[in-house]
Amino acid sequence: MDRGHNRNRRAIGVGVILAVSLLTSGCATPGPKLSQDLAGLRTGVVATREQARLSIDSANKLAREQAIEFKLDSPAVALAESDFPLAVDRADAEAWNAAFGALDAYAATLQSLVDPARGAATGDALASLGQQLNTGPLHAGLPASVSGAFAAFGGALVQARAEKTAAAAMVRVDPAFQTVMAAMADGIGADDSKGLRLTVRSNWAAALARLRVAYAEKPPSDRAARRAAIGQFLAAVDARDAQLANLAGLRMSLLSLGRAHAEIAAGKPVAAQVWIDRAHSILDDVRRRIGDAGKAAP
Amino acid sequence: MTRRNPDLVALQHDLSDVLDDLIDAQERAQTADAVRAIAREIAEVNHRITVAGQLLFKRQTEQITEAVLAIQEERAALDEAIADIEKVGAFIRTVSSFLGLVDQALDLAKLV
Q1: A122: helix, coil or strand?
Q2: What is the value of ipTM here, to two decimals?
Q3: Does residue B60 lie in a domain region?
Q4: Residues of A numbered 122-181 whose beta carbons fall under 8 angstroms of chain B's beta carbons: which are they?
């Protein structure tokens, strides 16, 4: 009877060890990696949000300046708020900011779900339970190795379940994520004749048109005045090109974020990182151009 | 894929073409008066492009907000998954604590 009981206990122990080894070896590695990928995606969201904020702010500043000039040229005596349209309405700018916030919160929740500490905490609780079972009056007599493996198995199982849930969620969310990114990219404009890019180009066209007037009004004999007018004109051309390049970069960052999400969902973290790095690099370019424009300003 | 108002898109496209023609005309103008007159027209067109652009951007933002709602709904499901995992840990800790009490009771029973 006793011999049979011991045989059964040994068989259970070996079975548990085998099951634990198989399960833990199959699902222990991706957790920290997926968490890292999601952390990368979040930094991409933050970088793109900053690009959007800088681009919308500068587009609105330009539109406001040109609306004031337009009003000053008008003989009308009435003053209305609608005389000064912004490139992007404040409510829409806030909605964009909120959209980025929601994307970041979504990635943060996914990251929290696959946090390896969550699986480890479950493993610790199981280890504590195993210890209690072995040392108390109700001792189960499980070998220490089995008890430890049981705890590791529990932690890995929780981790695997979280990863499966996270991966499935990313696949489900991907179409909505792509819709957000495509709609934002579309709002910016595929080229300088569409979307916000057209609005910015058009406002710069109005500014440049005034500078052409300033030049035309200088007599040919006044070379110094004409030189100064040309300088102002070319500085404005450079500023326009920089601002349009920033918007083109923002559009690329938005599309890159979409690609990064799709690659992570497809289990291709290396490809995802390439897209995230691109968003960071574009933000660096945007900041450099804004810095250069600040230095060039009179 | 997008729900941009097609009339506004067409209008913006037309305005963009007019703007390009005006820029071209100003660059080729022969008198200061012509340069001034075309600048005024460019300012008029620009005002309309800005207004139309703002409206289009608003439509696009509505679509973005709608798609974000779907993501937020998924986030709620993820929060539930996190809560479930935490429940497992809490359950194990409760069992441990309960067994600790049982062990204490058994130890006491042995002493009696």
Answers
A1: helix
A2: 0.81
A3: yes
A4: 122, 125-126, 128-129, 132-133, 136-138, 154, 158, 161-162, 165-166, 169, 172-173, 176-177, 179-180
